[in-house]
């Protein structure tokens, strides 16, 4: 089942450390010295969680918090999707990736810190967040670029739902992190008219969440398309079906329906809607036109909508028309297919009270 996380539980003081091995000036390891084995397990609230085989990301958000530092958002998953650690970190300008060193928890938003300013540093169990509010993170890096290996060790205090420092988390993880540059996903131009009111989507945000064979057929793959305006007042979510074997949107006209065939979009699972200034409209008919132009590493997508809407009572509510153009960030969310599919990760406006807005 796809859903959007909006749970709000409180937390307590945490001491997290991503452990550096050896000499930080040499990427975190002493030359020629073998790394100490790591079991990739964390103990939290008297339970042990194994992150072996789970997904791991560092997402670059640039000057999200201002000009003093660059923002990197880290998430470390268990393989079954039930356990997640998220860290909202600040690095020196221009680095674009995590660097070796000790990061202190505070809200100064300066390099060498990690923050709870938007409650994005947390431990998640079955989609429920327990917030980190103190401590340190020490990052160790061996190698560079896509081949870099990171070591993460934690010894933390975590708040319970009443805001009391009840829990601890201890453990260590090592592995590579998939790198995502979220700064390239800004909508270049466009506007949409919803039930007679026009909203400017220039400098907004666009993303695709890939869910693969979510609908369990061999004909199509599921992709959640999210478009958000810059004012964060309007979100468009469309559950798109592309031909089997494709992982991103492809050129074509997609029509509304529940056949689950390629080049359709569906409200089969409730994920075909417009959220506009707090009011939710469901898309119930129409067409979406997609065209893709390749510009280096980041294709540019033009998305054109002409769709009918219904209100929460199932009554006709006008339509949504318009178009926008820009790159779309992409996430592989197939690892969460058999869980709740709630936490993805980079779809929509950044980190809205969850690991990111999800499907």
Provide a descriptive summary of the structure in words:
The protein is mostly beta strands and 359 residues long. It folds into 2 domains: 16-181, no CATH class; 187-326, no CATH class. Helix content is 0%, strand content 47%. It contains no helices and 26 strands. The chain has strands spanning 16-17, 41-44, 47-50, 56-62, 70-77, 83-91, 101-105, 113-114, 122-125, 128-131, 136-142, 149-158, 167-175, 178-181, 189-194, 197-200, 205-212, 220-228, 234-243, 252-256, 264-266, 273-276, 279-293, 300-310, 316-326, 329-332. The strands form 2 sheets. Strands 1, 2, 3, 4, 5, 6, 7, 8, 9, 10, 11, 12, 13 and 14 form a 14-stranded mixed beta sheet that branches. A hairpin with a 2-residue loop joins β9 and β10 (128-131). It is globular, with a radius of gyration of 21 Å. Residues 1-34 and 336-359 have low confidence and may be disordered.
Q: Which key terms come to mind for this protein?
A:
14-stranded mixed beta sheet; mainly beta; 5-stranded mixed barrel; 47% strand
Q: Which secondary structure elements does this structure contain, and how are they paired or packed?
A:
Blueprint: E1 16-17, E2 41-44, E3 47-50, E4 56-62, E5 70-77, E6 83-91, E7 101-105, E8 113-114, E9 122-125, E10 128-131, E11 136-142, E12 149-158, E13 167-175, E14 178-181, E15 189-194, E16 197-200, E17 205-212, E18 220-228, E19 234-243, E20 252-256, E21 264-266, E22 273-276, E23 279-293, E24 300-310, E25 316-326, E26 329-332
Parallel strand pairs: 4-14, 7-8, 17-26, 20-21
Antiparallel strand pairs: 1-12, 2-3, 2-13, 4-5, 5-6, 6-8, 6-9, 7-11, 9-10, 11-12, 12-13, 15-16, 15-25, 17-18, 18-19, 19-21, 19-22, 20-23, 22-23, 23-24, 24-25
């Amino acid at each position: 089942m796809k859903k959007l996380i909006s749970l709000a539980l409180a937390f307590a003081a945490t001491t997290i450390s991503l452990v550096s091995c050896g000499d930080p000036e040499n990427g975190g390891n002493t030359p020629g010295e073998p790394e100490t084995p790591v079991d990739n397990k964390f103990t939290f609230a008297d339970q042990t969680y194994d992150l072996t085989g789970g997904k791991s990301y560092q997402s670059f958000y640039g000057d999200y918090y201002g000009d003093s530092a660059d923002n990197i958002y880290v998430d470390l998953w268990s393989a079954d999707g039930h356990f997640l650690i998220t860290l909202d970190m600040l690095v020196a300008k221009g680095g674009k990736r995590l660097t070796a060193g000790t990061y202190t928890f505070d809200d100064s938003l300066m390099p060498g810190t990690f923050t709870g300013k938007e409650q994005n540093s947390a431990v998640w169990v079955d989609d429920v967040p327990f917030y980190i509010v103190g401590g340190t993170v020490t990052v160790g890096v061996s190698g560079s670029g896509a081949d870099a290996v990171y070591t993460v060790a934690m010894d933390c205090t975590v708040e319970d739902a009443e805001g009391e420092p009840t829990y601890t988390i201890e453990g260590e993880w090592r592995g590579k992190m998939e790198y995502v540059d979220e700064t390239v996903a800004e909508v270049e131009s466009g506007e949409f008219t919803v039930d007679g009111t026009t909203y400017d989507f220039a400098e907004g945000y666009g993303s695709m969440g890939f869910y693969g064979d979510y609908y369990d057929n061999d004909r199509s793959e599921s992709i959640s398309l999210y478009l958000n305006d810059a004012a964060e007042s309007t979100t468009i979510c469309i559950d798109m079906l592309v031909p089997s074997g494709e992982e991103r949107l492809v050129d074509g006209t997609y029509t509304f329906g529940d056949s689950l065939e390629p080049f359709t979009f569906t409200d089969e699972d409730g994920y075909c809607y417009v959220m506009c200034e707090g009011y939710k409209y469901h898309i119930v008919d129409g067409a979406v036109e997609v065209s893709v132009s390749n510009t280096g590493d980041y294709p540019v997508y033009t998305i054109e909508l002409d769709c009918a809407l219904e209100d929460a009572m199932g009554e006709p509510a006008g339509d949504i028309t318009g178009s926008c153009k820009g790159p779309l960030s992409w996430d592989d969310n197939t690892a969460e297919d058999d869980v709740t599919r709630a936490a993805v990760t980079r779809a929509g406006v950044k980190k809205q009270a969850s690991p990111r807005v999800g499907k």
